[in-house]
Design goal:
305 residues, alpha/beta, 4-stranded parallel β-sheet, globular, binds 1,3-dihydroxyacetonephosphate, binds iron/sulfur cluster
């Protein structure tokens, strides 16, 4: 309780706001002013009035917030909280693909470093990837870094030609059909809801595929009362809060993003007190990585996502 009160006091003193992704610990989500998926948080980060943003998420999220709001101070509660997939593409391959395909659009999943973003034409998140890629005039799409999301998008837009990259999220990649079958055997009436970072075989046995927010929305709209959730376990807090009458299960190997779990209330308090772990970006990288992010926000607003 003392930590919470101290955080509230410092937030006022420093004109700070706390953003949190659904994958962080429940006790961190409870402290947040805004909780959401990557798309919601990037939209929020672009329009906040407070001078300081404490970003409870991994480093690409802090970088994106800084790129979209370069005049603000962005603080990361844990300096080592990173996303493995964000590094799974390389700028040399982007250069080669651009040479090989004249009209190519480089589409960059927001789970990527600023260095990758600045070499890309537009960012997407799992909540808007299909709509944004569909709206592009380009026939050729080089989708980085996530191969699973890329294949999910490509299947829905057969008229475009996709060049794939080999990145993946280690947390979603490890979800196995066998474990989902076991969960179904235990809970035969449960619907399977999966994030598109999961592999194709998992998506094929799912009743719904969508972003973290999409999964939360779907669980509310569905008439089912039980669900097997194929995404990171932090989402459970929001599902239980919104739908207390429904039951949610995970697979035997529960999907946990250790980097998201590095963030604790004590670390939030520490950075608010000290100003440590500020996101500092090279001016040029900041400016150039902002462009594909702003393009995402512009196209998303146009297609009313
Ligand atoms: P969304 O927030 O777009 O659902 O993405 C999930 C994720 O892995 C974030 O790191
Ligand atoms: Fe990255 Fe996967 Fe963790 Fe999301 S869940 S931050 S994609 S490693």
């Amino acid at each position: 309780m003392i930590v919470r009160e101290e955080i509230e006091r410092l937030k006022k003193e420093k004109d700070a706001v706390i953003l949190a992704h659904y994958y962080v610990r429940p006790e961190v989500q409870e402290l947040a002013d805004y909780i959401g998926d990557s798309f919601y948080l990037s939209r929020m980060a672009a329009g906040l009035k407070e001078r300081t943003i404490v970003f409870c998420g991994v480093s690409f999220m802090g970088e994106s917030a800084k790129a979209l709001s370069p005049d603000k101070t962005v603080l990361m509660p844990d300096a080592h909280s990173d996303c493995a997939m964000a590094h799974m593409a390389d700028t040399e391959k982007i250069r080669r693909v651009r040479e090989a395909y004249e009209d190519v659009a480089v589409v960059c999943y927001i789970n990527s470093t600023a260095e990758l973003k600045r070499c890309s034409d537009v960012c997407v998140t799992s909540a808007n990837a299909v709509q944004i890629v569909r709206s592009l005039p380009n026939k050729n799409i080089f989708f980085i870094p996530d191969r699973n999301l890329a294949h999910f998008v490509a299947e829905q837009i057969p008229e475009k030609h996709f060049i794939f990259n080999d990145g993946y999220c280690p947390v979603h990649q490890q979800m196995k059909t066998e474990e989902i079958r076991q969960a179904k055997a235990l809970h035969p009436r449960a619907e399977v809801l999966a994030h598109p970072e999961c592999t194709k075989d998992v998506l094929e046995m799912s009743d719904y595929v969508g972003s973290t927010s999409g999964i939360i929305r779907y669980a509310g709209q569905s008439s089912a009362r039980e669900f097997i959730i194929c995404t990171e376990n932090g989402v459970l807090a929001e599902l239980q809060k919104r739908y207390p009458g429904k039951e949610f299960y995970f697979t035997g190997t529960e999907p946990v993003c250790e980097d998201m779990k590095l963030i604790t209330p004590e670390k939030i308090l520490h950075v608010l007190k000290t100003g440590e772990n500020e996101v500092v970006m090279d001016g040029k990288i900041c400016e150039e990585s902002r462009k594909p992010l702003e393009e995402m926000l512009r196209l998303a607003a146009q297609s009313l996502i």
